[in-house]
Structures are given as structure tokens and as C-alpha cells.
Specification:
Length: 307
């Protein structure tokens, strides 16, 4: 399999602490790769290394099939918005993007306008960036990251601190750029539910280690995982379920019965319960949230030793 970006056992040590511990990630062209982890999990460290902003203690990574030493001249193919977007507060949106373009050797005066249009910031005129809302600054940072037509854009916590409207704007923009321009995104977040609306692949990182890489499709399969059943007699319902051959179920304190197998048999269950005089008051297939899946995977507080 050819990856546009991959790492092999990347490790970053700070003193005795492993901020990253043998992390391997695999990103295909066109992916929106969601890097999930609690605060201190190692997301920024990983993104800084693959952005060329920091060195690993050991391990390798490759971008476009090349190792970092062979990346000369290809830097502009990676757009980076990690930590401070490097916005000059006294400059307008246009001037900020133009400055970034010039740094990349792009002299065409129209390019900044095109980039600002892409992120819906064409209307800001003479307003200095220092007076922008956080969401606008985030989008300006993204326009700057998009200078040079990158194939890959790396965004560290792009929705951190945004209001709901700002979150939707950034999400829609990422999806649009991915669909229309085929840009591969790597996005970190600790807001799991939010990332689940955008990402096509997830890398779940905990205490510096990669716990699981999983496609959105597989994750959805794993999360669509139980029948939630409510009846007027939980004890009797359990007897009926046993008679029907169900063994993998759990009775919750609130009277709900969660059944983790044979999800296609909801019709059979209600029919059989009715025949045995048990009334079904609720039955549905419930999706586990990404948050629940994550907590199950890494434990209680996200298994975060830094929490
Ligand atoms: P957050 O969402 O809080 O930014 P993160 O997942 O991005 O978390 P990192 O910033 O990568 O996590 O940090 C991973 C670990 O490495 C943390 O325990 C952090 O304290 C440590 N760390 C990061 N940078 C340094 C540094 N320059 N010196 C020492 N320790 C560091």
C-alpha cells in the first residue's frame, strides 16, 4: 500500500518521559486523518515532527514516499497550522496571506484573494487581523496554510476555542477542500464527536502510543453495537431472551436491557416477548458514541497519566 504520509516507530523523549512512543501512522492520499487523544497524549509532538518543526529521538517518517532529507523543494506541498498560525495582527487578511505567499515565492497578487475566497474571508477589507474573531483567525491561518497548493494540510486542534458556528464553518471548509481539491488532511482534536463528523480515518493516541488506527467505516460498524430494549418486566424478558438463545446481554439499573449480538432480530424479540405476555415499551439499535468507544479502548479518564 502506498501512503502519502507514514511514520515508523517514531519516538520523542523529553528527559525520561516518552512524549511519543514508537508511533506508526499510515495516511493515504485523500484521507481526512483524525488524530485523537486527550491533552498531553502526544498529538502536537507528532504533528510538529511530521511538519518538520521538531526532530524525533528515533524512528522515521516519510512524506510522498520520501524521507525528510529528500524533501527539499517539496515543503510547500505541506500546509501547516500547528500552534500559533503566525498571523500579524496589524496586517489585513490579504496582507497576511500575501506575506506568506511571498515567503513561498508566489508573487501573483491574485493568489491571496483566491485563498481568502476559499476560506470565506473575502469580505474583511481593511480590518486588521488582530480584530478578527477566533474563528476568522483560524480560517485566516488555514488560508495561509493553503498557500502553495499543498497536497497535505496539517491542522493542530483547529476548532479549539471556537463557538458552534465557527466549528461548523471550519468543518465544512475541511470537507469542501478535501472533496473539491483532493487535499489530504491530518487533524488533531480531543473533541472526539466533532472529529467523527469529518474524519475518514482515525488514529487513537494515548500516553504517547498509538492505540488503534481505524477507518470511519470500521468504527461505525464497531459502534453500531447493541439493541436497547425496555419492557414492563425485565426479569421475565431475560428468561425469554435466554430461551431465544441470547447470552450476550446486560440488564442496566434503569431497567434497559442491552443486547450485544444478533442485532437483526429486533422483530423476533418483540414478537416473542408479546407471545410470553411481556410488553415492549422501547426497542432500538443504539450506536455507541465515539467518546464511549474511546473510553472503552483507553480506559476511564482516557488513560491519561497527565490528566
Ligand atoms: P495538548 O492537546 O494538551 O496539546 P498533546 O496531545 O498535543 O496535548 P503534546 O503537546 O504532544 O500533547 O505533549 C505530549 C507530552 O510531552 C506531554 O506530557 C507534554 O508535557 C510533553 N512535552 C511536550 N513538549 C515538551 C517540551 N518541549 N519539553 C518537555 N516536555 C514536553
Amino acid at each position: 500500500m502506498d501512503y502519502i504520509l507514514s511514520t515508523n516507530n517514531l519516538t520523542k523523549r523529553y528527559g525520561k518521559q516518552n512524549a511519543l512512543d514508537n508511533v506508526s501512522i499510515h495516511i493515504k492520499k485523500g484521507d481526512i486523518y483524525g488524530l485523537i487523544g486527550k491533552n498531553g497524549a502526544g498529538k502536537t509532538t507528532l504533528l510538529r515532527i511530521i511538519s518538520g518543526l521538531a526532530d524525533a529521538t528515533s524512528g522515521e517518517y516519510s512524506v510522498f514516499g520520501r524521507n525528510p532529507q529528500e524533501m527539499k523543494g517539496l515543503q510547500s506541498r505541506i500546509g501547516v497550522l500547528v500552534e500559533n498560525p503566525g498571523i500579524y495582527p496589524d496586517m489585513t487578511a490579504y496582507q497576511n496571506v500575501r506575506t506568506k505567499c511571498l515567503a513561498l515565492g508566489i508573487r501573483d497578487k491574485n493568489v491571496p484573494n483566491e485563498l481568502l475566497k476559499l476560506v470565506n474571508l473575502s469580505y474583511t477589507g481593511k480590518k486588521p487581523a488582530g480584530k478578527f474573531s477566533l474563528g476568522m483567525r483560524q480560517r485566516l491561518g488555514m488560508a495561509m496554510a493553503l498557500a502553495g497548493n499543498p497536497d497535505i494540510v496539517i491542522l493542530d486542534e483547529p476548532i479549539n476555542g471556537l463557538d458552534p458556528e465557527g466549528i461548523i464553518e471550519v468543518r465544512e471548509m475541511i470537507i469542501k477542500l478535501n472533496h473539491e481539491l483532493g487535499i489530504t488532511f491530518i487533524i488533531s482534536s480531543h473533541i472526539l464527536e466533532e472529529l467523527s463528523k469529518t474524519a475518514t480515518v482515525f488514529g487513537i493516541i494515548n500516553n504517547g502510543a498509538m492505540v488503534e488506527e481505524i477507518t470511519a467505516e470500521k468504527l461505525a460498524e464497531k459502534c453500531e453495537s447493541r439493541i436497547e430494549l425496555m419492557t414492563d418486566d425485565a426479569a421475565k424478558a431475560c428468561t425469554v431472551l435466554e430461551e431465544m438463545g441470547f447470552t450476550n446481554y446486560k440488564v442496566l439499573e434503569n431497567g434497559f436491557i442491552n443486547i450485544y449480538e444478533q442485532l437483526e432480530r429486533t422483530g423476533d424479540i418483540t414478537m416473542e416477548l408479546a407471545l410470553k405476555g411481556v410488553r415492549t415499551t422501547h426497542i432500538s439499535i443504539a450506536n455507541k458514541s465515539l467518546e464511549e468507544y474511546y473510553v472503552e479502548l483507553v480506559g476511564g479518564n482516557g488513560g491519561n497519566k497527565n490528566a
